[in-house]
Specification:
Elements: E1 5-12, E2 15-23, E3 30-36, H1 39-64, H2 72-83, H3 89-106, H4 116-126, H5 132-151, H6 178-186, H7 191-203, H8 207-211, E4 218-219, E5 224-227, E6 241-244, H9 247-267, H10 289-300, H11 307-320, H12 325-332, H13 337-344, H14 349-357, H15 364-376
Length: about 375
Amino acid sequence: MRPTAWLCKRENKHGWVWSLRWTDPATGKVFRKALGRDLALARRVLVDKRAEIGGARAAVGAARRAPDDPEWAAFVAEYLDLAAARVKPSTLKRHALALRVFGDICTPSRLSSVDYRMVERFAAERLKTTRPATVNSELSSIRAALNAAVKRDALGENPVRRFPMLKVPEKELRVLSPAEARALLDVCLSTRWRAFVYLALSTGLRRSELLNLTWECVDLDAGVLKVSNRDDWTTKSGKNRVAYLDATAASLLRKMRDETRKRIAEEDAEHQLSWLFVTRTGARWENNVTRGFNALVKRAGIRRCTLHDLRRTFCSALANAGVSAAVVKDLAGHADIDTTLRFYTKVSPDAKRAAVLSLPFAPASNAAAAANLGASRPA
C-alpha cells in the first residue's frame, strides 16, 4: 500500500532537491512540494505532514459515519433481527449468545465504545471458564456483527479483525475400530436402531440428516439416498448430495419399513408413512436419540463415543482404503476440503508405513513388506 506521505529526490535545473509528496485523504489526489537539500528539515516536514493527514483521515471517517451512535443493546437487537432472514436458526442462536456474553462482560454503552482493549478483556475473562475453541467461536460471531456495523458506516473499524484467534490444542479424533463397530451393531436390539447406526457408519450422514430423511429420498432398488434441502430444513453446507447404500443398508431399510408399516397399520390403517425413522406411533423420531445411543455404547462395552464419531469413522475408513480426499469430501458433504483433511481423516499407522515402504526407489524388500501390511489390514 502506498504511504500517505513520502520523500523522494527530484532533479531540477540547479541539480536536485528533496520533494515531499502526499495523498489527500478527501480526494485521493497526489500533491508535491520542494523542500531543498536539507534532509533533517525534510524529515521533520514529513512527520508533520503525516500527522496532519492522520487527523484529516479521522475527520473524513467520522464524516462518513452515520450521524447517530446507537446504544449497544439497540444495535444487537437490530443486527439479530436483520440476520434472522439470512442465517440458520442455530447460527442466529449462537450469535445472540455470544453478543449477550460480550455485553455482560464488557458492558459497552454504545457501539462506538467497542475497541481492541475491550476485545482483549473479553477473551481473557472467557478463557477463565471456557475452552479456547468456544472463545474463538464467540469471537467469530462478534466479528460478524461488527463487520455489519462497519458496512453500515456506523463503526469506523472492527477491532475483532485485528485480534488473533486463540490457539486450540489438537484433540485426538475418536474413530471406531472394525471390532468396535461390530460390537455396537450387535447390541442394537431393534431394527430401527440397527439401521440408524449402520447408515451412520456406511454413509457418514450427520444426525440431523438421518432424522430428516423421508421415504421419498430413498430408492432401495437403485441403492441411493438423496439428502436434499427443504423449505423447513437445510443441510449444514446448504448443498444437496447423494449417499450410496450397500446391500446390508438396503436390506435393513426394507425390513424396517415392513415392520413399521405392519405395526402402524394395526393401530391406524390410514396412516401414511413419511419419515424414515419414526417412533412407535409413526411420528418423526427426534427425542432421546443421544440418550439411547449412549446406552448402546455402554452396553457394547466400548470406549465412549458420540454419534458424530460414526461419521468420522466413515471418512477415516475411506481414507485408509485409499479413496481420494475429493471423493471423501463429496460423500461427506463437506463445504471445504480442509475440513475433510483436518478434522475427519485419521489415517492408520500401518497405512502411513505402507505408503513410505511403497516408494518407487525403495528396495524390493520394502515393497514386499508394504504388500504384507496391506494384506493384513482389517477390512
